[in-house]
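ESCALATION

Customer reports they have been waiting on this structure for their group meeting. Please prioritize. Original submission:
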Amino acid sequence: MTFPELNYYQQTFIRLSLKDEIIPSKEFEDCRFEACSFNNCSFTGVKFLNCIFSECSISVIKAPGSRFLETQFTKCKVIGFNWSKTNSIRGLTFNECQLNYSDFSYLKIPGTKMLGCEAKEVDFTEADLTGSDLQNTDFENSRFYNTNLSGADLREARNFFIDIKNNSLKKTRFSFAGAVTLLNSLDIIIE
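Update from on-call: job pushed to the front of the queue and completed.
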């Protein structure tokens, strides 16, 4: 068994490599994961509190009933992660991560930080991203529908299509180029 204890506090895991494993009912508090690989694993009822993942590969993960509270990911590949199946999320920070093919639909995750990330084909349908910092992130083919982006910061974000009629954008910050792309949803001609 990879994690024989129920609780881990202030521990560092380096170059841990897991594939197709089930990790049930563990708690990690103030732990660091460095250059670890968790591919096609299932974290069932696991709690991550104030944890840091650095340069990790976390692909096609299932996390039913798990909690991610004040968790940071830096230069990680967090690909194909269905966040909407988790139990609780608060205070997520992604710095220079790949988040492609992930699902944040229907989640209330205000204040999320997604800085300098690649978030291609990510689903944000009916997500609450109020006050989130999404600067310099590539949202190519990502879905924003009925998404609350009020007070969010999308300066230097790119490749997004956000229909201004179907999303909440009150006090949302855009760079000039980003603001111009919002006009694409209006079916108008600018000459």
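Sent to customer with the following note: The radius of gyration is 17 Å.
Escalation resolved.
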